[in-house]
Amino acid sequence: MRRKFSAVGMMHIYQRSISGFNLFYSLEDFLVFYTIVSVTVPKFKISLWEMCIMIDHIHILASCAEPYQLSEFVSAYTSLFVREFNMHLGRSGSLFEGPYGSACKIDQKKIRSAIIYLFNNPVEKKLCTLAEEYRWNFLKYYDPEKTRKIKKKRGLSRRLQRALRMADEAHTNKRYLNYAMLKKLLKDIDPQEKELLTDYIITLYFPFDKSISEKYFRSYKDMVTAVNSNTGSEYDIVEKHYGKTDAPYREILHYLRKKGVTDPKSLIVEHTDVKKRYYLMLKENTTARPVQIRKFLHMEKETE
User: Fold this and answer.
1) One domain, residues 150 and 127
2) How many structural domains does the chain have?
3) In a domain, 207, yes or no
4) Fewest C-beta in 10 Å: which of 94, 160, 224, 303?
5) Closest by Cα among 87, 84, 85, 61 to 74
6) By mean pLDDT, which of 108-112, 149-153, 172-176, 255-259 is the weakest?
7) CA-CA distance, 139 to 126, in Å (whole number)?
8) What's the CATH code of the domain at 52?
9) Are residues 255 and 288 in the same domain?
10) Do the Cβ atoms of 111 and 10 come closer than 8 Å?
11) What is the rounded distance in angstroms from the CA atom of residue 74 to the CA atom of residue 157?
């Protein structure tokens, strides 16, 4: 079908993974994707409104002058992320279903509803109670008063100062953070420092147009109130669901790490027999549904 497009409206871009497989397992996965999108946006003169990165799909709200800009933008960041993801795991092949889904929004009421819907995705999937509690819809980072500022001053550990300098250098040179760079940044960083560094990277690479909150909701505070008072709606995008909650994926991660699996994502490239053993283990010891375990392990068919 021919895509609908409007240069005066907003486009809702929706991408889901192949077979609903999980894509984002770790902090590094989220940051690689986020920084790739951030450095790609200006190359295609895209106005990026909002984005929400879920475990197995992505929502993006954006606008531009010509439809080809949007298609080339999606193609560019998708190709880069797939390449980095595959190189990191030593795998090959696609990660996203194609073509991507899109819906054109022109009416202000529909635009507000789509914005609210995007921010509320993690709430609907029971990953948080309030939309601003979820890091990867970036809602809390629209508010300069709540954003955690990090200044290079005394009191920060040398390792954290070093990580901040490396992030600054990459951003100045318009480079995204790949897995190798993030491994260096996060080396010997304790949990509290990791939180500070993550917030710093997000604010450093922040690619979103903050004026949208004032244009459609008068202020950031009013936008948050609207988001937490209404789930929003999106009738032009068809989503596939593999359970009412994504919380079991976190339970799977916690269980595997407790069992000594330091990189749970690596299981997706294991031999089928290994996956079967983990499937049965997770089925017995977590509340995850069989379909969710398969999506986590990248298994096409149910294994009893």
Assistant:
1) yes
2) 2
3) yes
4) 94
5) 61
6) 149-153
7) 16
8) 3.30.70.1290
9) yes
10) yes
11) 38
Rounded to whole angstroms, the Cα distance separating 90 from 214 reads: 45
Per the DSSP assignment, residues forming a β-bridge with 50 are 61
Provide mean pLDDT across the span 276-296.
96
Question: In this model, does residue 8 exceed pLDDT 90?
Answer: no
pLDDT of residue 6: 77
Q: Whole-angstrom Cα distance, residue 229 to residue 293?
A: 32
Phi, psi of 31, deg, nearest 5: -70, -35
More confident residue, 12 or 238: 12
∠ CA 198-162-206, nearest 5°, is 35
Global confidence as pTM: 0.93
First to last CA, the chain: 39
Q: Do 112 and 163 belong together in one domain?
A: yes
Please report, for residues 248, 274, 295, the alpha-carbon distance to residue 282 in angstroms, rounded to integers and kept in the order given. Answer: 10, 12, 12
Mean pLDDT in residue range 164-175: 96
How much is the pLDDT for 9?
86
What is the number of alpha carbons within 13 Å of residue 241 lying toward its C-beta? Answer: 10
Tell me if the bond preceding 42 is cis, omega within 30° of 0: no
pLDDT for res 238: 57
Query: Is 26 in contact with 265 (CB distance < 8 Å)?
Result: yes
* 35 and 178 belong to one structural domain: yes
For residue 116, the enclosing domain spans: 1-241
* C-alpha span between 161 and 297 (Å, rounded): 37
- Contact of 302 with 294, CB cutoff 8 Å: yes
The rounded distance, in Å, linking the Cα atoms of 57 and 16 is: 4
Q: Specify the pLDDT at position 304.
A: 45
Measured in residues, the chain has a length of 304
